[in-house]
Amino acid sequence: MDNAPDLTAIREAHDRIKQYIHRTPVLTCQSVNTLSGASVFFKCENFQKGGAFKFRGACNTVLSLNEREAAHGVLTHSSGNHAAALSLAARIRDIPAYIVMPSTAPAVKKAAVENYGGRITYCEPTLASREAAARKLASETGAALVHPYDDYRIITGAGTAALEFLEDVNDLDYLLAPVGGGGLISGSALTTHFLSPNTKVIACEPENADDAYRSFHEGRIVPIDYPETVADGLRTMLSEKTFGIIKRYVHDIVTVTEEEIVLAMRTVWERMKIIIEPSSAVAAAPVLFGKISARGGSPSTRGKVEGKRVGVILSGGNVDLEGLPF
Length: 326
Prior knowledge:
This protein has 2 domains: 7-52 and 152-314, Rossmann fold (3-Layer(aba) Sandwich); 55-145, Rossmann fold, CATH 3.40.50.1100. It is built from 13 helices and 10 strands. It has helices at 7-17, 30-36, 54-64, 67-70, 81-93, 107-115, 127-141, 152-168, 183-195, 211-218, 240-249, 258-272, 278-288, and strands at 26-27, 39-44, 74-77, 97-102, 119-123, 144-145, 174-178, 200-206, 252-256, 309-314.
């Protein structure tokens, strides 16, 4: 965790990007409160530019590059949200963005990258293929590699969502966010540690892509080769940077089933009248289905958050409307 961001770095990141991002709203829903027995607050990063929290980290990173670093543009590999975010951030700075995307990425996310001016190279839907294609493209273009999450500038930018959240809502008992590569949850955990140390940060993950859950409990990064989940944004693996922060500052990691993800997504659509993607629903599902428990304990079916103040970061809303899971 050498050089991990501190509160000053997170505040500086927010100052750097605030004129370009949306300060997204915090919404509540009486139906969700009734279902969960808790007071639930949703930080709506589905309303962020680019449709996801990823724009925070991408914008912070691109604006942090010096002229020499930015001279040949930026490059990343991503299933969609980070790709779109980096493309948009590069457009703000008027530099090219080279994007490696798996061929199976949702059509809506491919279209977003193209609309923001990103130059797409497709690859096979494995992490190894993505990384190999990115290395090749970097050697050809000289572009600066911006990793989707294994970068403290990305983590710091992502942490600005929790910074705003904790400024807007006081005394949260829990703060929940999804975990894939770990950029959002590690940034959120750091920010919460500095600003609201009594708030327990809970990472939320699909059972079918539970590498973070396994890693957390085994104390080492445990990869999964082919995670299969409707939450396509959470199929990535932790990095050393994100895992180091998670081990220290995340209270627990809980998992949810594919059925629970889909039902949580539908519940938010129907009860709150907002569009969220499956990865966002992964953070809402533990509240709705009683998955939060004390670390090391066994979650009951209901009641763990009853009477508590619970914050949920809805990470994004980029959904392929031609392929809804319900």
